[in-house]
Amino acid sequence: MGTTGSTTRRRRWAALLGATALAVTAGGALAAPAGAVSTESQNVDFATHCIPPPIAGIPPIDGTTTAVVSVDNATPKVGDTVTVTYKVVTPAASNPTAISLPADIMTPTGKVTLGGAQTGSITVAGPKKNDPVAGNAPFPSFSMTGTFTVTAPGAITLSPGDYNIHTSYILELDTPCTVTNPPAPVSDTVTATDGTQTNTRAITLGTASGKPGDSVTVTGSHFTPGATVTLAGRSGATQTADTGTATADAQGAFSGTLAVNDKTTTGVVAYEGASWSDTKGAGPAAYVVVDDTPVPDNAQKITTTVKAGTLSMSQAGDAVQLSAVDFGQGGASDGALRTVTVKDFRGGPAGWSLTGKVTDFTGPGAKIDAGRLSWSPACVTKAASPSTCQAGSSGTVGLAGATLASTPNGGLTGGEFTVDAGLSLNVPAFTPPGSYSGVLTLTLT
């Protein structure tokens, strides 16, 4: 009986340890992680609300977390991928018992909040690795890493966000810790640059229309001084046989004429070099050939008009039921996005992008973090569509969102497309039983 009672108490202490290991409070100084080059990283303190697993039998813990966020590149360019490290510093809280906590039983995950020139959040995760904790000794610090792609130039701030630690010691336990007054203070800042040389070349036309064979005056600016500039007609994305040349002066300006004969002409371009280049060209400037060819005797001229439509989407339902998971096991709760149909009937040069973001999944007194939902997009283009649909990357959806599908810009875009995605919600093992729901919002631009 004595042995059984001791074992029971030990197991309860183990459960308690698995919970309190996540309830970090104030800590001490911290050096920047290896590889981080930012010199602006600094420890910050923020109020934290931690909810131990119900089995621990202890109330929520409100304390102070000390953390630091650092990056591997403090001066990225737009399009660069930046690695972010979120470290929770050595907490002031200690092991409340004389029982030692084993090594390698803690697996942390969390969020880093972006602000300034780029907003959103980054999902970070750490390895299942920690030093043993002696009885009544302080709990160890832990680090999590993740990446984000820079999408805008300017100063981008990084603040520590919510975190969760999964412990595997006799029982599988989760303790989520949230920022009480988000966002937490800024811990690091990166300054992003555009990374590309802006093409400022520009052209204007003396008139926007003319009869077949008429010449149009083309005026240009910001070209390379002394460069030979080709003037050319465009029919959609295709260059016509109508071409001419001009020479840029010492200030990079020119004025030339182009005879336009092709009746299908929709615009005029000007460029340096042997062929068109986005980096050394300007235009197209809109131009229309007015066909005033007389109608022969005993004939009728027949004209039709193609009207531009709109960009729209529809979906095959507004509810998705994911598969159930077992309490104590958790894991992947799978399903499929309701098929989305995108119709691009604008008939212009612009492509489109379909993105989605999801809220946290709320249930009976608990929630499942939005960052646990991932998808595997797929996109099919209807035959004869001018554009080709590109599926987004598989991965996390989360609060910040991700791209589901898109089409690129082009000379003439459009078509009809069907978009699908496999969905998977990674449910923590000991999530309280019940139904959890989140809202996935799709945006077409």
TrEMBL record:
Question: Which InterPro entries did the record assign?
Answer: TAT_signal
Classification via PROSITE patterns? TAT (PS51318)
- Kindly state which keywords UniProt assigns to this record, in alphabetical order: Signal
Record-linked Gene3D superfamilies: Neocarzinostatin-like
Q: Which residues form the signal peptide?
A: 1-31
At the top level, the lineage of the source is Bacteria
The molecule here is called Beta-xylosidase
Species per Swiss-Prot/TrEMBL record: Streptomyces fagopyri
